[in-house]
């Protein structure tokens, strides 16, 4: 099959089918053009569900005109409602229909949305507890490569004894992976084609969705055009709202609310700082900001070639964002969900990723854009270990070399792990 015609296998498909067999409502959310519609249509065909898109004017008008009547008209069918964020007023009707189902009936509604409206104040009434929510991100590198390897499962297994040499990634080779990003439609396009696609994505969809979600008024368009590229340049850094507002000469509260909306739209991802008291994690310290897609980030920053990115000061930060988002993507088909945080102490010792299991055990991950690694690269992990004690189950430095290497630092065992592990067809 030619590359242009390739359909990517989504590794989370089996999870979605499993959840439809267990829940009355499944909400599949994630960024536009990540593949939700393709996957929803595939599932609809496989399960005999009626598919409707609220992106179609007639369907949307009917849904808004009489929400309860609209849902009731499909009482005898299981229903896929694509682009659900355009008609949040359907929520009470879906809730009523779900509440009236026989106890054993599952898989009644599959809703997809390009904005996480159930985090939005515009949706006042949440759907009931028998709804499952799944995030579908752009393609992971393993899905692009046709692999079922799961990074989260690998990390939680704790077996870092892999002895075979893995692909050593040259800086430009890795830069090309970051430049391509994960949107399915972009993978087969030329550099010019990618640029046109991303420009259309921002102008034709991102602004439209922002207006729908945020009910934006006034000069929001110009403010967003300044804010989004700025945030792309901030990827992999601490997010200081006052600094962003000051640099862009914008109101601090407006900047905060716009960033929140961009996160609902899956353009950016904020990672909370790790603190011992889980109740304080949303309020203590500064979050770290990551662009969800490194390809989109490169476009916003005017980076068009792998060589340009490889020699750019932002290369290391985008590599960090790439690994962070691979963690979230792989969680879609991992055996276990984990919390994702970052660590930074008062002496500015940092760990890029802290994964927390439900029992409280932790895995710390530092990311280094280099083929060499030394004892000094584990400094942040040593400080994290002192901070949390025996809760730290593993400490790793991801680097671009070719072998898993053990390091013993400050009487603790750590490992250097090749980024190439994600590309190996394990």
Task: List the main descriptive attributes of the protein structure presented here.
426 residues; alpha/beta; Rossmann fold; 5-stranded parallel β-sheet; globular
Fold and architecture overview:
The structure is a single chain. By secondary structure, the chain is of the alpha/beta class. It folds into two domains: 3-135, 3-Layer(aba) Sandwich (Rossmann fold), CATH 3.40.50.300; 141-422, no CATH class. The protein is built from 16 helices and 14 strands. A six-stranded mixed sheet has the order 9-10-11-12-14-13, sandwiched between helices. Strands 2-3-4-1-5 form a five-stranded parallel sheet, with helices on one face. A three-stranded antiparallel sheet has the order 6-8-7. Strand 13 and strand 14 (412-418) form a beta hairpin. The longest helix has 24 residues, at 191-214. The model has no long low-confidence stretch (mean pLDDT 89).
Please state how the strands of the largest beta sheet are arranged side by side. Answer: 9-10-11-12-14-13
As for the number of domains, it is: 2
Q: How would you sum up the major sheet?
A: 6 strands, mixed
Helix tally equals 16
Mean pLDDT: 89
Q: Unreliable segments (pLDDT under 50, ≥5 consecutive)?
A: none
Question: What is the tally of beta strands?
Answer: 14
Beta strand %? 15-25%
Distance from N terminus to C terminus (CA atoms, Å) equals 23 Å
Helix content: 25-40%
Summarize the structure.
The chain is of the alpha/beta class and 426 residues long.
């Amino acid at each position: 099959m030619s590359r242009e015609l390739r359909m990517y296998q989504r590794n989370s498909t089996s999870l979605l089918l499993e959840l439809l067999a267990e829940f009355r409502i499944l909400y599949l959310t994630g960024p536009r053009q990540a593949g939700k519609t393709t996957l929803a249509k595939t599932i609809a065909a496989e399960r005999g569900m009626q598919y409707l898109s609220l992106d179609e004017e007639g369907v949307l008008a009917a849904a808004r005109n009489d929400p309860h009547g609209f849902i009731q008209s499909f009482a005898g069918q299981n229903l896929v409602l694509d682009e659900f964020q355009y008609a949040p007023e359907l929520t009470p009707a879906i809730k009523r229909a779900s509440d009236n189902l026989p106890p054993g009936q599952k898989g009644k509604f599959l809703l997809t949305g390009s904005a996480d409206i159930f985090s939005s104040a515009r949706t006042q009434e949440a759907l009931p507890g028998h709804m499952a929510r799944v995030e579908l991100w752009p393609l992971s590198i393993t899905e692009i490569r046709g692999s079922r390897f799961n990074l989260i499962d690998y990390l939680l297994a704790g077996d870092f004894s892999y002895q075979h040499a893995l692909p050593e990634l040259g800086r430009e080779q890795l830069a090309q992976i970051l430049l391509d990003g994960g949107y399915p439609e972009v993978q087969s396009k030329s550099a010019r084609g990618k640029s046109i696609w991303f420009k259309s994505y921002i102008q034709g969809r991102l602004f439209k969705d922002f207006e729908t979600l945020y009910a934006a008024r006034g000069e929001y368009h110009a403010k967003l055009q300044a804010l989004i590229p700025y945030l792309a340049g901030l990827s992999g850094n601490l997010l200081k709202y006052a600094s962003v507002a000051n640099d862009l000469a914008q109101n601090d509260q407006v900047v905060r609310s716009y960033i929140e909306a961009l996160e609902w739209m899956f353009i950016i991802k904020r990672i909370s700082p790790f603190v011992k008291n889980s109740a304080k994690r949303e309020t203590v310290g500064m979050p770290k900001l990551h662009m969800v897609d490194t390809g989109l980030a490169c476009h916003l920053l005017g980076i068009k070639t792998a060589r340009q990115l490889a020699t750019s000061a932002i290369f290391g930060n985008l590599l960090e964002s790439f690994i962070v988002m691979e963690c979230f993507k792989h969680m879609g088909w991992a055996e276990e969900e984990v919390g994702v945080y970052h660590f930074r102490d008062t002496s500015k010792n940092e760990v890029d990723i802290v994964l927390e299991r439900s029992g409280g055990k932790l895995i710390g991950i530092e990311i280094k854009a280099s083929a060499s690694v030394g004892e000094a690269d584990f400094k942040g992990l040593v400080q994290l270990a002192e901070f949390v004690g025996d809760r730290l189950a593993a400490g790793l430095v991801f680097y671009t070399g070719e072998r898993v290497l053990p390091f013993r630092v400050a009487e603790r065992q750590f490992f250097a792990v090749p980024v190439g592990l994600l590309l190996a067809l394990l």
